[in-house]
Amino acid sequence: MNTPVPDVIRAAYAQLVVTDLAAARWFWVDMLGFHLQYEDATSLYLRGTDELTHHSLVLRTGEAAALGHLAYRVRTPDDVERAAAFFTARGLPVRRVPKGQGTRGVGDAVRVIDPLGFPVEFFHEIEHAERLIQRYDIRHGAEIARLDHFNICTPDIPAAYAHYASLGFGCSETIEGDAHELYAAWMYRKQTVHDVAFTGGAGPRLHHVGVATHESHQVLRCADLFGSLRKQHHIERGPGRHGVSNAFYLYLRDPDGHRVEIYTSDYYTGDPDHETYRWNVHDDRRRDFWGNAVIESWYKEATPVLGLDGTPRTVSDALLDESALRIGADGLG
Q: How far apart are the C-alpha atoms of 224 and 88, rounded to whole Å?
């Protein structure tokens, strides 16, 4: 197709449905250190201390935990129109969301169901917010700096790769089999390792939201805080270092089971000839550089996603299951 492609800048925000707003505020604001930008009776709008836009995470109340939608910022208002045309030309559901009728602080947007079954918003205009970069006096918890990426569970990794490549995303790293079958991929628009990554598994489901902090000691402090309050059950995996991305990480689950990765120390991908680094699926350093086991829940559990009408999307089983392979420390087959 020759339909113009929207110029995506970066992963911009995620909207998660939570069942208890007070419990969510304790986890995301008090413990992780997100800045509370706005709240009302049914929602919280959060951002990291480096972010100059209104929010990077929206938590809204609902009957069951779910992903409301993922959102990408595009470069110009015309790119919002290009996004609408791009998905309409592919026969996919598209809904326009005029300014003032959608997410607080966001201008005209379009929401689509992408070829992978995910609800995704594209927007350009968003309110700016107070600069907090040097407000060291208000930092706490894990000192979250910014949203970094989305990780999604999808049954067809090659299809996910092809879709995001068609939107102009580069690929920093992959996990591949001996015959180059694709088990996972990390793709980017901003000049870091990824804005979106794909975990093979039943989908569409949200695997995790990745948020960045500046230094590894803040990741360790986050784990210590949960331990000191006897809330260590929220820690699912880590701390550790990924082989893919080189990032130092900690995975936690919020009170509704949404997974978040506290993430730091990845690398620059902005050179035009940046080459994809390809990990073999039999290398047990790929998921954890130190060879530590990946627990079963990390592979098997994820957040359901909603359609544009607010009803849960149907989930399909995976074509390739990385967790079923007996590979080094983390074979779960």
A: 48
